[in-house]
Design a protein that fits this description.
This protein is α+β, with helices and mostly antiparallel strands. The chain has two domains: about 210 residues, FAD/NAD(P)-binding domain (3-Layer(bba) Sandwich), CATH 3.50.50; about 90 residues, Alpha-Beta Plaits, CATH 3.30.70. Helices cover about 30% and strands about 30% of the residues. It contains eleven helices and 21 strands. Strands 5-4-14-15-16-13-17 form a seven-stranded mixed sheet, with helices on one face. The protein is globular and about 60 Å long.
Length: about 350
């Protein structure tokens, strides 16, 4: 987002909570991301980051028989299993090179509207509370939508999907494709990572998870044994690090902007990981939002409405695909996870 704003000649400042040092959940970029990376001007830097090529997707979904979707015929070539931490570092560094200011290890505390229709943002940095002024604010805080909720917007939660994520060592002959695998109580996403590890996320509903650390590990291991394709990626399926639980459901805001602010990416609309569109949609959202902000600051009062209409169209297309793909699984009609999604459709 900051990169797109800087490209339009606007001065952007980013408050980033991290130092881009911790391991982040690996994600896969589809081949269609290539034009967006070119538009952002980071294609060369992206290529230098040695992300792992992904030649396709293999899924065991509507039936036990695996279905293979190879990217060999895709006009953009292969996809990529990301080193997500490095990818985020590259975006930040590219934004700085374009003229944006990225303040790392900063925690926003408050956003106050000023009498001249601007903003004063207070944030904590190096143990002190500091201030920065802005003409316009953009909420890129992810699913928490922190800024939008500060301005009175509400989150609309469509489901309570969570991901239980584990990292381990990848088997020497592990498949380089993205793996999607349906099981009785949810589904698995798994992929090799550039560092030689494997990430596997079991997606299910929050109320189906057991309580307690030991019970969760036992639950995760038992569900992994139901997933032959996913298990085959692991050098040792029993050797998994600390499990992480992340909310992954479909969420949207009841309004995506207001006087002097708007939301982008997962803060505006967060998609089910099954769509494999999280990062791609976030980048696309950032480009559209940057255009809307630039037009708005130049006096186009319809810019925010146009951005909102674009997001509505994107969400409508996503919803159609959501019910289509979940509707393909009818192997476990008595299991509550799949029954909920069948009833919703």
């Amino acid at each position: 987002m900051a990169l797109a704003l800087a490209a339009r000649g606007l001065t952007a400042a980013v408050l980033e909570r991290s130092l881009y040092e911790s391991e982040r959940f690996g994600e896969t970029l589809p081949p269609g991301a290539k034009p967006l990376l070119h538009r952002l001007g980071i294609w060369e830097a992206f290529q230098n980051d040695a992300h792992l090529p992904s030649p396709g997707i293999i899924s065991s979904w509507g039936s036990e028989q695996p279905y293979e979707n190879d990217f060999i015929f895709n006009p953009y070539g292969h996809g990529w299993h990301l080193d997500r931490t490095q990818f985020d570092r590259t975006l930040a560094a590219s934004a700085e090179q374009a003229g944006a200011m990225v303040i790392r290890s900063a925690r926003a505390q408050s956003c106050l509207r000023t009498t001249d229709a601007g903003w004063v943002v207070r944030y904590e940095f190096e143990g002190k509370v500091r201030e920065i002024t802005a003409t316009f604010l953009i909420d890129a805080t992810g699913r928490s939508a922190w800024l939008a909720r500060q301005q009175g917007a509400s989150r609309i939660v469509l489901d309570h999907l969570v991901g239980v994520i584990g990292f381990g060592e990848c088997s020497e002959d592990g498949d380089q494709r993205t793996i999607l695998e349906a099981t009785p109580d949810g589904w698995w996403y798994s992929a090799r990572l550039p560092n030689g590890k494997v990430v596997a996320a079991f997606m299910t509903d929050a109320d189906l998870l057991p309580r307690g650390h030991d019970n969760l590990r036992r639950f995760w291991g038992e569900r992994l044994r139901d997933a032959a394709l996913t298990t085959a990626l692991w050098s040792n399926p029993d050797d998994v690090g600390e499990l992480r639980v992340t909310f992954s459901g479909t969420v949207r805001l009841d309004r995506i902007g207001g006087p002097g602010w708007l939301a982008v990416g997962d803060a505006a609309v967060a998609f089910d990981p099954l769509s494999s569109q999280g990062i791609l949609k976030a980048m696309d959202s950032g480009l559209h939002a940057a255009a809307a902000v630039a037009d708005l600051l130049q006096g186009n009062r319809n810019a925010l409405a146009s951005y909102s209409e674009w997001l509505e169209a994107e969400f409508a297309a996503y919803t159609k695909n959501y019910f289509h793909y979940y509707g393909q699984v009818s192997r476990w009609p008595d299991r509550i996870f799949w029954r909920r999604r069948s009833a919703a459709g």
